[in-house]
Amino acid sequence: MVGLSPPWSGLSWFAPRLPPRVAEVAGRGAPAMLEELGQSPLRAAVLAVRPEAGRWLVADQPAWPTALVGLPGGPVALSVEGNVELLRAPAVALVGTRHPTGTGRALAREYAAAVAEAGGVVVSGLAAGIDTEAHLGARGRTIAVLGQGLAVPMVAWQAAVRRRVLAEGGLVVSEFPPNLPADRWTFPRRNRVIAGLAAAVVVVEAGHRSGAKITAHLGAEYGREVVVVPGLPTLPSFAGCLDLLEEGAGIVRSAESVVSLLAAG
């Protein structure tokens, strides 16, 4: 295991406070990012952070995902567990509610399996519901992006899904320091990594207040294709999908239409 050396360790810890311009120059390396910070107190705080142990990718390494290069406000480092080669493959994000209908669950698995069979990768957030169905349907061709550090304990069901993802050849990533627990602010940040890694965002089933809508909006901001399963207007769990349709999102008609999105990147 290779530790995250300074100043990358400090940049990772303070990523939520880094100005967008700092992330935009990440590809030039940590010195360029520190130069953007100038002589501010934040720069001193970044340099004072002790290195974090673990396996890391940082933004100036050749293995850094090209999809994240130049992403406004993007991550500066990713802690990784599993098959990092998946970061090189075309990807589609499959996201949605934690409380889906049986139809939503079945569609998430069907779409994920189709993407995997076509040589693509499914990106999602390892949450209950649609995320879990997407990860399992992809059978190892999947990247799980966490809203917490990799070393933070998980509830039993989530830990079991994570183990299966890794056992089948998948990848688990986080931009957060290993021991940073999940919080309200970490999930929107997690969502931007999900959107950033994918060529397109597919919202399978989502309510009005679903976090999947945040991922969809971020995907649109990053120039990704955004499509949704329209669902029935009488089902609250599809209300967010209808919201996104009114905002101009495309429609998912079949698994084949989801696979076609791999070429969007």
SSE map:
Layout: H1 8-13, H2 20-24, H3 30-37, H4 41-48, E1 56-58, E2 77-82, E3 91-96, H5 102-117, E4 121-124, H6 130-138, E5 142-145, H7 156-167, E6 171-174, H8 186-197, E7 200-205, H9 211-221, E8 225-228, H10 239-246, E9 250-251, H11 255-260
Parallel strand pairs: 3-4, 3-7, 4-5, 5-6, 7-8, 8-9
Antiparallel strand pairs: 1-2, 2-6
Query: How confident is the prediction overall: mean pLDDT?
Result: 93
According to DSSP, the number of beta strands is 9
Query: Helicity level, as a percent range?
Result: 25-40%
Supply the number of helical segments. Answer: 11
Strand residues, percent: 5-15%
The Rg value, from CA coordinates, equals 18 Å
CATH architecture of the largest domain: 3-Layer(aba) Sandwich
Q: What is the CA–CA distance across the termini? A: 32 Å
Poorly predicted segments? none
> Could you say which structural class the secondary elements and strand pairing correspond to?
alpha/beta
Series of H and E elements: HHHHEEEHEHEHEHEHEHEH
Shape: globular
Largest sheet: 9 strands, mixed
Reading off the top of the CATH hierarchy, the class of the largest domain is best stated as: Alpha Beta
What do we call the CATH topology of the largest domain? Answer: Rossmann fold
What is the domain tally? 2
Strand order of the largest sheet: 1-2-6-5-4-3-7-8-9
